[in-house]
Amino acid sequence: MANRLSQIATRTGDDGTTGLGDGQRVPKDHLRIGAMGDVDELNSQLGVLLAEPLPADIRELLVTIQHELFNLGGELSIPGYELLKADAVLRLDQALAHYNAQLPRLAEFILPAGARSAAIAHVARTIARRAERAVVALAAIEAVNVAPRQYLNRLSDLLFVLARVLNRANLDGLGGDDVYWHSERLKKVAEADVAVGNESGAP
């Protein structure tokens, strides 16, 4: 890989291009740069989640994931290079099985809500899905290893599961359970609006 950064404000990107890890320069709107940016955003969002009160095991897992995402971003920055190994995907599979086993089966859709840590995990989940889509789009035009796509796919699933776990951990006192989507609630709201309209003479 390239040498570590010794300065940040290089001004070399003023022309709308940026450098990859192998030294070539590409437009900043290149699909590879978009994928790298989404992975960077995902890692940053996990940093926000790590600033919250968390169970020790989940904190340790997320720190490991941050390092693996850095490897994933590094791999994307060097076409043809491999940094993210298959065992990283396996670790996510194992974590999914471990935390899923603690949860009741879902009978209804849930909302991205509850404890603050759970809500942040849901935000990270949506960014992981966007990063996955970006990697898939890149792979349609250039060669990309399979591990990054698989990793992001598993990670988005894991973050959904962790959000449910964090709601039950209830470390900030604002969670306790999943927040369910209620279609009946929307139906009642609509019926109430109709009733109000009838009373007011509205058409």
Structure, explained:
By secondary structure, the chain is mostly helical. The protein is 60% helix and 3% strand. It has six helices and two strands. Strands 1-2 form a two-stranded antiparallel ribbon. A hairpin with a 5-residue loop joins β1 and β2. α1 runs antiparallel to α2, α1 packs antiparallel against α4 and α4 runs antiparallel to α5. The longest helix is centred in the middle third of the chain and has 24 residues. The termini are far apart. The model has no long low-confidence stretch (mean pLDDT 84).
Average of per-residue pLDDT values: 84
| Spatial order of strands in the largest sheet | 1-2
Q: In DSSP terms, counting alpha (H) and pi (I) runs of 4 or more, how many helices? A: 6
Radius of gyration: 21 Å
State the end-to-end CA separation: 68 Å
Number of strands: 2
Shape: elongated
In percent terms, what proportion of residues is strand? under 5%
Structural class: mainly alpha
What helical percentage do the residues reach?
A: 55-70%
